[in-house]
Amino acid sequence: MRPDRPRDPVAGPDSGPEAPYPIQLSGPVIKGFGRGSKELGIPTANIPADGLSEYPDLDVGVYYGVVALDPRQFSYEGENASATVLPAVLSIGYNPFYKNKMKSIEIHIMPRLTEPSPTAQVDSGPTHFHKLPDFYGTPLRLLILGYIRPEYDYVSVEALVEDIRVDCEVARQSLRRPGYVCYLNVDADADEGVGEKVQRWRRWLTEF
Ligand code: ADP
Ligand code: MG
User: Fold this and answer.
1) Domain that holds residue 132
2) What does UniProt give as GO cellular component (predicted)?
């Protein structure tokens, strides 16, 4: 069960990702179990889990990071010249379909940090999560930058949805820090002042 205490607003060291992060995963967006949107109202893009074999010790749980979609197949709000890098919250867990033997990767993509967050609580109505047009089959690249929390059992679907809403906000606040936001801003001359390692990661993210 979830410990009954307030949640930290950020996760991971302020200075930036520390080993084993960033963790790179990629693949085409595949069909999941159809649970994300239908049952919880949270669409999660699934990619094949093969890449996880490189990280056998990776804990199951909720993580944050950045993603890009192949701009030849998906243009974010009409931007189509180069890939847009967006904040993401993701869960790595066991796939109940395969008798809990296989991990699965479920990625929820959020709006840019400069855009309003639908999960920043403004009233007490139902939570709405960010929804894009479907992009099944589109190549996706993901850099995991930090760990948020383990998976818990919940007393209700509402309690789970509320925890995921907070995960989204923790991810956004965590990514706003200078040691992380440099992974999101991949535009034009933004390479200035960014270390060579970060530049390499950014190139990997966006060069499809
Ligand atoms: P599935 O079980 O097939 O993964 P979901 O209900 O989890 O179905 O919906 C995921 C699909 O929704 C993604 O593959 C993608 O095409 C689309 N989608 C729309 N908005 C988002 C978003 N914000 N984050 C992730 N996927 C999204
Ligand atoms: Mg899904």
Assistant:
1) 23-206
2) mitochondrion
Ligand 1 pocket, residue 36 CB under 6 Å? yes
**Cβ of residue 154 lying under 6 Å from some atom of ligand 1:** no
Q: Summarize the confidence of residues 128-148 as an average pLDDT.
A: 97
Angle ∠(35,36,41) on CA atoms, nearest 5: 115
Going by C-alpha positions, the residue among 27, 132, 142, 118 that lies closest to residue 74 is 132
Residue 168: which CATH number? 2.40.30.30
Question: Could you tell me if residue 1 is inside a domain?
Answer: no
Three-state DSSP at 83 gives: coil
Q: Which residues contact 46 (CB under 8 A, 6 or more apart)?
A: 29, 30, 31, 32, 104, 105, 106, 107
Is 2 inside any structural domain? Answer: no
Give nearest CA residue, ligand 1 atom 15: 134
Token pair listed for 11: 């996760």
Does this model's pTM top 0.85? My answer is yes
Residues near 59 by beta carbon (within 8 Å), at least 6 away in sequence: 92, 147, 150
CA–chain centroid gap for 46, Å, is 11
Question: Among all residues, which ones are annotated catalytic?
Answer: 106
DSSP assignment letter at 2 = -
User: Which two structure tokens, joined as six digits, stand for 15?
Assistant: 């200075």
84-96 pLDDT, tens digit per residue, is 999 999 999 986 6
Residue 3 inside a domain? The answer is no
